[in-house]
């Protein structure tokens, strides 16, 4: 049995995000705006099918995927790249690997109590975000 990620999650912490954005070569103006935001996550899970909506006053990003199936991800609005993305289960953790222009780009989601954790990695940089279920 896998974890239940369904719900609306509000950001409560965001560590080292600007350095992560630098590793993605995001321009300074967008970085400054992005680091001021506290995006929410709206997650719909039906078995291994996920829709993760990252919502903010600046930009929204939607990710629709099935665990274990590689797909082309269009990161317009994030860093304007495309990559081949695969998300798998590691126990109750969702582990994403993005193959493209940025070395070591990936993320991991997991739940602890009523908190959703997200660890973002790119080019040796790690950013950690925590969201609380509302």
Automatic annotation (TrEMBL):
User: Which segments constitute the Lipocalin/cytosolic fatty-acid binding domain?
Assistant: 6-120
Q: Which InterPro entries does the record cross-reference, listed alphabetically?
A: Calycin, Fatty_acid-bd, ILBP, Lipocln_cytosolic_FA-bd_dom
| Pfam hit, one | Lipocalin
| Highest rank taxon of the organism | Eukaryota
**What Gene Ontology terms describe what this protein does at the molecular function level?**
lipid binding
Q: Which family does it belong to?
A: Belongs to the calycin superfamily. Fatty-acid binding protein (FABP) family.
The protein's name: Retinol-binding protein 1-like
Q: Which source organism does the UniProt entry give?
A: Carassius auratus (Goldfish)
Organism placement in taxonomy: Eukaryota, Metazoa, Chordata, Craniata, Vertebrata
Gene name of the record: LOC113120535
């Amino acid at each position: 049995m896998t974890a239940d990620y369904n719900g609306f999650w509000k950001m409560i912490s965001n560590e080292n995000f600007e350095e992560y954005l630098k590793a993605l070569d995001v321009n300074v103006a967008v970085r400054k705006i992005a680091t001021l935001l506290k995006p929410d996550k709206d997650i719909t899970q039906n078995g291994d099918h996920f829709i993760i909506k990252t919502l903010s006053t600046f930009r929204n990003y939607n990710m629709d995927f099935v665990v274990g199936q590689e797909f082309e991800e269009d990161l317009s609005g994030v860093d304007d790249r495309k990559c081949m993305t695969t998300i798998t289960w590691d126990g109750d953790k969702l582990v994403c690997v993005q193959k493209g222009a940025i070395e070591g780009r990936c993320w991991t989601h997991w739940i602890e109590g009523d908190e959703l954790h997200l660890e973002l990695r790119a080019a040796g940089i790690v950013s950690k975000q925590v969201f609380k279920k509302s």
